[in-house]
């Protein structure tokens, strides 16, 4: 593969990145070829040493997805999910090392969110149980427990649930950041970039 073929494939890999970033990346790789020619290396040897241009382009595109929403701090969950699926196209082997852990961790997060949301709802149900006993005494019973205790236990459970939801919001933000870091790490391994 010569310089022109490498650059053409790199452009395809970069896809729809912002034009200024595309030009900067392409200029960097053109410079690699100029420096290699000055040292007496052939275009073919330089292209081989640089690696697969489509993989390199895709990895830059994934970096752009992960960095694109960093104005407010962490990358957005939508961009991280897009980057995960884009990284799957780098290699077939990548599906095992990105999609597998991502699916398992996402399932765990869904389970934790379900538990966090169910706590305040359960607290409200427990707090309302004395009212249910008054409305339908034949259907509901407190089992000998004081109605005042049930109200305060329900309030405590609802408060604990609200704290769990707040905690899960922070854990979710951390999860998104960690997935973004994992995708970057995986890209570096696949493309052998530092």
Give a structural overview.
The structure is a single chain. The chain has 194 residues and is an all-alpha fold. It has one domain. The protein has 7 helices and no strands. Helix 1 runs antiparallel to helix 2, helix 4 runs antiparallel to helix 5 and helix 5 packs across helix 7. The longest helix has 45 residues. It is rod-shaped, with a radius of gyration of 27 Å. The mean pLDDT is 82.
Number of strands: 0
Helix content: over 70%
What would the average pLDDT be, to the nearest integer? 82
Number of helices in the DSSP assignment? 7
Q: What characterizes the major β-sheet?
A: none
Strand content: under 5%
> Unreliable runs, pLDDT <50, ≥5 residues?
none
The Cα radius of gyration reads 27 Å
Number of domains: 1
Distance between the termini: 23 Å
Shape descriptor reads: rod-shaped
Helix-strand topology string: HHHHHHH
Name the structural class. Answer: mainly alpha
In short:
This protein is mainly α. It has helices spanning 3-14, 19-38, 43-50, 53-67, 77-88, 92-135, 147-191.
Please describe the topology of this protein.
Blueprint: H1 3-14, H2 19-38, H3 43-50, H4 53-67, H5 77-88, H6 92-135, H7 147-191
What are its keywords?
single chain; 194 residues; mainly alpha; 7 helices; 80% helix; 0% strand; rod-shaped
């Amino acid at each position: 593969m010569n310089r022109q073929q490498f650059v053409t494939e790199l452009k395809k890999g970069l896809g729809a990145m912002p034009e200024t970033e595309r030009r900067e990346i392409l200029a960097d790789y053109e410079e690699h070829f100029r420096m290699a020619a000055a040292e007496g290396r052939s275009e073919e040897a330089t292209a081989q040493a640089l690696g697969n241009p489509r993989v390199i382009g895709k990895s830059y595109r994934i970096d752009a997805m992960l960095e694109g929403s960093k104005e407010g701090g962490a990358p957005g969950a939508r961009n991280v999910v897009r980057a995960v699926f884009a990284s799957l196209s780098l290699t077939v082997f990548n599906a095992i090392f990105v999609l597998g852990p991502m699916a398992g961790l996402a399932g765990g997060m869904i389970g934790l969110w379900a538990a966090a949301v169910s706590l305040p709802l359960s607290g409200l149900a427990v707090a309302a149980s004395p009212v249910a006993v008054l409305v339908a005494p034949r259907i509901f019973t407190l089992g000998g427990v004081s109605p005042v205790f049930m109200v305060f236990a329900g309030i405590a459970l609802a408060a604990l649930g609200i704290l769990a939801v707040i905690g899960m919001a922070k854990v979710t933000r951390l999860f998104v950041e960690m997935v973004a870091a994992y995708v970057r790490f995986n890209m570096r391994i696949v493309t052998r970039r530092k």
